[in-house]
Design brief:
5% of the residues lie in helices and 46% in strands. A hairpin with a 5-residue loop joins β18 and β19. It has a 9-stranded antiparallel beta sheet. It has a 6-stranded antiparallel beta sheet with strand order 16-25-24-21-18-19, with no helix packed on it. It is mainly beta. The model has no long low-confidence stretch (mean pLDDT 97).
């Protein structure tokens, strides 16, 4: 696999253009801490590219039965989660991006969907740009999505960001605790679709064990962005993952708690937002006007 490298401010990042411009590794050089889950082999990554690094989700999480209606048009997506009969995550995380610029501490990569070369069955021309830079404040990521079509384009995006547990050299998974900005927790049914029922998110604000503890929860972070913090209680070190306004929800996932990672996944809209009956002010459902764009930013850093 071909990776491009950027360095600056005591951090080194490795980005994979051929798989969705995924930042696959972020190292804090002084401490040796690894801030992202990195595959041990190319084969491991190719088999499950959405559980390493910072894979881009477009749309984020699930679309019930793989379709929804918007502006009199039916949007169809392939069923790629057959057990629950959903479309999940899109395929941008496995799609090649072009490297437009690469400097010592900065990289810009892009993907363009056109009428002749569409994205899945998505009926819009659009562009996606991912910018990365590193400095003493860690990794800075900017996502820019532009509607290049002549009609309003539904927009939902997120990242399946995977943090290693533990993340400090010689650390113990049992010392790792995750806390997130969250106003409430959305409950979901056995198909992982929000029901409308909510409950307190207090335990997630205070912090929950990141390992040896099953985590699968959908959190509402509000309209001002939010922060996920993975703390090592023994060393006092913290991975801080701060996301901008425009991100409205977290999906928290650790695949049973014994796989050595946890994903605080920021999403611009809730799971299955286009089909949920709660209204866009609640679900985060959004549409980009022709020629307009959406910009989402994030920062990933280590605090010792």
């Amino acid at each position: 696999m071909h990776l491009i490298t950027i360095r600056g401010g005591g951090y080194t990042a490795h980005i994979c253009p051929e798989k969705g411009a995924n930042c696959l590794r972020l190292t804090h050089e002084k401490s040796g801490a690894e801030l992202l889950r990195t595959p041990l082999t190319d084969e491991e990554f190719y088999q499950r590219s959405n559980v390493y690094g910072m894979p881009l989700l477009f749309p984020p999480n699930r679309i019930l039965d793989g379709h929804y209606q918007f502006n009199g048009r039916t949007y169809e997506f392939p069923i790629n989660e057959p057990a629950r009969h959903h479309h999940i995550h899109g395929c941008l995380h496995a799609t090649p991006f072009a490297v437009e610029e690469h400097k010592e501490n900065y990289a810009r990569l892009s993907y363009h969907a056109t009428q002749d070369q569409p994205y899945l069955q998505f009926p819009h021309a659009f562009s996606v740009t991912l910018e990365y830079s590193v400095d003493e404040n860690g990794l800075h990521q900017k996502l820019i999505v532009t509607n290049c079509s002549d009609s309003s384009m539904p927009f939902g995006a997120g990242f399946h960001t995977a943090l290693p547990v533990p993340f400090m050299p010689g650390g113990d998974a049992g010392d790792c605790v995750l806390s997130v900005t969250a106003g409430k927790q959305w409950m979901y049914n056995d198909r992982i679709i929000p029901t409308g029922e909510v409950q307190s998110a207090e335990c997630f604000r205070q912090g929950v064990p990141a390992a040896h503890n099953v985590i699968s929860a959908h959190m509402d972070m509000g309209k001002s962005g939010g922060t996920a913090i993975l703390s090592d209680r023994k060393s006092g070190a913290k991975i801080v993952y701060a996301v901008s306004e425009g991100y409205r929800f977290w999906m928290l996932f650790n695949e049973g708690g014994e796989k050595g990672y946890i994903c605080p996944e920021p999403q611009s809209w809730m799971v299955d937002a286009p089909n949920r009956p709660f209204g866009p002010e609640i679900t985060g459902f959004d549409a980009i006007a022709p020629g307009d764009k959406r910009v989402l930013t994030a920062n990933l850093r280590l605090e010792v």
